[in-house]
Structures are given as C-alpha cells and as structure tokens.
Design goal:
single chain, alpha/beta, TIM Barrel, 9-stranded mixed β-sheet, 9 helices, 9 strands, 32% helix, binds SN-glycerol-3-phosphate, binds calcium ion, GP_PDE_dom, Glycerophosphodiester phosphodiesterase, PLC-like_Pdiesterase_TIM-brl, phosphoric diester hydrolase activity
C-alpha cells in the first residue's frame, strides 16, 4: 500500500530561494504549495517574540549583537533581506504575530524554540498562541526537551515535537518515556531508518525529519513513509509528491 503523502514543511520559509525566516520566505513557500512552515523564535529585550534562527543578528541582517539585548524597534530597523539578494532589501525580522497574520490556519506552523534558558519565552509564547487562537494548529519543537515538556505542562492542548540529532537507540521508547504526550519526532534525516519510522507511525507518532533537500534524499524519506519533511525547497518536494 502506498503511504499517505507526506506534509511539505518549508524550513525557515523557502530558505533555499529567499532570506530565511522573513515574511518574503514564508510568502514564497506558501505560493509553492507548502502545507507547513518551520521557523525559529527568540525573545527580545522588551519581551516580543521574533522569528530568527541565530541568537544574534549578525549573519541574517545588517545589524549585529544579541537579540535578547535589543528592543523590537531596534531589531526591526535592520535589513533582513539584502544579504540574500537585492530584490529582498527591506525585509525585516518579523514578529511571530506578524507571521500569524500572513499564514492561514490551515497551514501547520512548526515553532522551534531556541534559547529557552530564561524560561520567559514559554509564557510569552503561550499567551500569544491563546490570544490569536493558534494553540491547536501549531507544533512546538525544540532540541531542549525540558523546555517543550514545560510548555506542554503549561498548555496541554499544545502539540509538542522532539528535535534530535543523535542516533537514538529507540526513539519511540524515548518519546513514550515522557510524562506528557509527545506528538511528533523531528530527527536529523541522516539518522533515520525505515524501521524507526514504521514503529513511530504505528504508535501514532508523526515523523518530521529535517532538513532534506536533494531529490534523492526526499524520495528516500518518502519511501520510508515519513509523515512530513522539513525542506529548504518546498517547490522541489511538491513536484515529487505530485508525481506519486
Ligand atoms: O526544526 C528543524 C531544524 O530547523 C532544526 O535545526 O538548526 O535548522 O534550526 P536548525
Ligand atoms: Ca529550526
């Protein structure tokens, strides 16, 4: 039997073709037919949640310094697109709220929490999700598993996903060992084998590997029966999914 078609999850937007984690990258991914968007969040000095991969602004804007030390107004004064291509000059570091305004609720947003060490970001995130009615259509993931467990304990309606890069002996047993419900596994795709996928899916876990980009890797993961793939090239994956 042919497995269900996997979800196309655009990594930091259409990162392969637009400046990552900007509204332009999310808009492009949506136009290419993605069904999910993965993004990364940090907290500013004045407690706004912004979408950026790194904890500093140096690589993806014309600014510099740590996000946690700057206000939203200071951060949004920087250009977050020109480093990628001239056509993207004028893009800014968006807030998560601005992403919610752009992305329809039918598209799953996978929010990766970076640098949760302060503990403040969990409360701010849950407040925002409740205010915007987004609690039930996002998946919260992190490499910090204590952070996502705290989040699930604070808001049990949320879906949580385990991000990991290690080759775990038994990912399903690890997920089942949590004292809260785990929705999805987000392994580095090179670590994944078909048996892990089958066991996880049979136990009701979604499997969303990251970050696969070549046709060969995307096809191999689809053959394994993964639930979705996090990719920098949603357009490439769309062609493969449509051809099945
Ligand atoms: O969420 C999957 C992937 O984005 C995790 O790694 O470094 O790209 O945030 P990174
Ligand atoms: Ca990420």
């Amino acid at each position: 039997m042919m497995p269900n078609k996997p979800l196309i999850i655009a990594h930091r937007g259409a990162k392969g073709m637009a400046p990552e984690n900007t509204l332009a990258a999310f808009r492009l991914a949506l136009s290419q037919g993605c069904q999910g968007i993965e993004l990364d969040i940090h907290l500013t000095a004045d407690d706004h949640i912004v979408v950026c991969h790194d904890s500093t602004l140096d690589r993806t804007t014309n600014g510099s310094g740590a996000i946690v030390n700057q206000t939203l107004m200071e951060i949004q004064a920087y250009d977050a697109g020109g480093w990628c291509a001239d056509e993207y000059k004028g893009e800014i570091v968006p807030t998560l709220d601005e992403v919610f305004e752009l992305v329809p609720q039918t598209v799953m947003i996978n929010i990766e929490v970076k640098n949760a060490y302060s503990g403040r970001i969990e409360c701010k995130l849950i407040d925002l999700l409740r205010q915007r009615g987004r609690v039930e259509d996002v998946v919260i993931s992190s490499f910090d598993h204590k952070c996502i467990r705290r989040i699930k304990q604070m808001e049990p309606r949320l879906k949580i996903g385990l991000l990991y890069q290690a080759n775990l002996l038994d990912p399903v047993a690890y997920a089942r060992g949590f004292d809260v419900e785990v929705y999805s596994l987000h392994p580095q795709f090179q670590m994944l084998d078909a048996e892990d996928v089958q066991q996880a899916v049979a136990q009701g876990l979604r499997v969303y590997p990251f970050t696969a980009n070549s046709e060969k890797d995307l096809s191999r993961l689809m053959e394994m029966g993964v639930s979705g793939i996090i990719t920098d090239f949603p357009c490439r994956m769309k062609e493969l999914v449509d051809a099945r």
